[in-house]
Amino acid sequence: MGAFVISKRYNDEYKFVFTSRKGKVVFTSLSYELKFECEEDIEKFKTTIETADFLKFKSSGGKFYFKLMLKGNHFATSRKYTTSLRLQKGIDEIVRYGSNSEVLDFSGNDFIFSD
What we know:
Layout: E1 3-8, E2 14-19, E3 25-29, H1 35-47, E4 53-58, E5 64-70, E6 73-78, H2 84-97, E7 102-105
Parallel strand pairs: 1-7
Antiparallel strand pairs: 1-2, 2-3, 3-6, 4-5, 5-6
Protein name: DUF1508 domain-containing protein
InterPro entries: YegP-like_sf (IPR036913)
Organism: Flavobacterium rhamnosiphilum
């Protein structure tokens, strides 16, 4: 099963990624100013995943990616895939596991190991 992982960007805004069962990033969200907005959008996505649209693209470098759309609004962008088959497998994983994936919060600056 995949997981939603919340973290901070370098500009102190929040984002989340959806990771596959193997730990690879499938897509990355847009930026959020506040963490609770990020958490709310994850829950909204989990409950409305069946209405999500996946717009598929091919980059100028020949890689495949998708933009995840919710109710006509851009929600997230996928990582780059080498083939369209792998792209489709990424989408299938989201549809299959997204609604019951856990949420992990790594947005705090608490380091496990000290210097």
